[in-house]
Amino acid sequence: MKLRVPSFSILNGKNWKFTPDTIFQIFLGVISIISVIVLAALLLRELIRGAWPALSAFGLGFLFSSAWNPVTGEFGALPFIYGTIVSSMLALLIGVPLSLGIAVYLTEIASSRVRAILSPVVELLAAIPSVIIGLWGIFVLAPFVREHLAPPLMNYLGFLPLFKGPAYGYSVLTAGLVLAIMIIPIISSVSREAILAVPSLQKEGSLALGATRFETIISVVLPYAKGAIFGAVMLGLGRAIGETMAVTMVIGNNPQIFTSLLHPGYTMAAVIANEFTEATDDVYLAALIEVGLVLFAISMVVNIIARAITWKYLKVQEGQS
Q1: Would you call the peptide bond into 143 cis, given omega within 30 degrees of 0 as the criterion?
Q2: Chain segment 223-272, per-residue pLDDT in tens
Q3: 142, 169 Cβ separation under 8 angstroms
Q4: What's the CA gap between 137 and 116, in Å, rounded?
Q5: Backbone phi, then psi, for 72, in 5-degree steps?
């Protein structure tokens, strides 16, 4: 006995069959439209409208001013933008090589027993709440940076502005290390899946031609998976840019432009978390919301750049195939 699919007549007289597939497609389309509407409402109703007093008062100068004094009504987002970018780039500089090393080791070098033990351990790092990592940063990492890491950096690399003292412990370097730890499970997990997706024929062909395992990894595996690895790096960058609690607890929260990584700094997410409840003045509150608007814009730009490079890579890969 055949199951008859009901058809429905609409205004133009055509009959449309609502199969489970079409119903599911319509459901996903509605969800997608709702997501876009929510995003637009957040941007227009909450961020732009809430930041309008600061936008009207300071204009584009808000982005390039380093003054932040709620008492005198002076507000500028440059120290927070600068601190967010520097701490995020430092986290990538530390975290990406470690993440790729972990991914390559677990997929290409480690035995199945070691892989079964280490893989869940690395992934469990992502489940640790950021406030716990922040507490660990306060009581363990910050003293370690102040007493053991900063002194040799100042002694041997103190001629560089990046490593001039004094060392406070609560610094941009500490925040970068904390962020690197937080993005490692994200980048390593996605990179590991990308490396596992490399066809075995590619690796076997390289080995058959006389390449060593190391040469195969460098010349075959990583180039084949570079698009997905880049996407993993962008995911890690997004996490680093938006991280709030852990960074707030270890960066020192000093709204000034710094040149040394050993000095305290500030990020956009941290200043919003610290001062939002203290903002009693309308312009002060609007300035904090505008900082959030800038953070939103930077996150969108990062995602757009990641999409563009990923699409370009996919087109090149399709042309090669």
Answers
A1: no
A2: 988 888 988 898 899 889 989 999 999 999 999 999 999 999 999 999 99
A3: yes
A4: 29
A5: -95, 0
And the tokens for 138?
């306060």
Matching residue, tokens 């609690």: 245
Q: How many helices (H) and strands (E) does the chain have?
A: 16, 4
SS3 sequence of 39-64: HHHHHHHHHHHHHHHHHHHHCCHHHH
- The residue behind tokens 């950096």 is 153
Amino acid letter, 104: V
Alpha carbons within 13 A on the beta-carbon side of 227: 15
Q: Which CATH code fits 62-320? A: 1.10.3720.10
- Residue spans per domain, the chain: 20-58, 62-320
Distance separating alpha carbons of residues 71 and 311, to the nearest angstrom: 48
This prediction has a pTM of 0.86
Residue 75, φ and ψ in degrees, nearest 5? -140, 130
Q: Percentage of the chain surpassing pLDDT 90?
A: 48
pLDDT, residue 16, reads 56
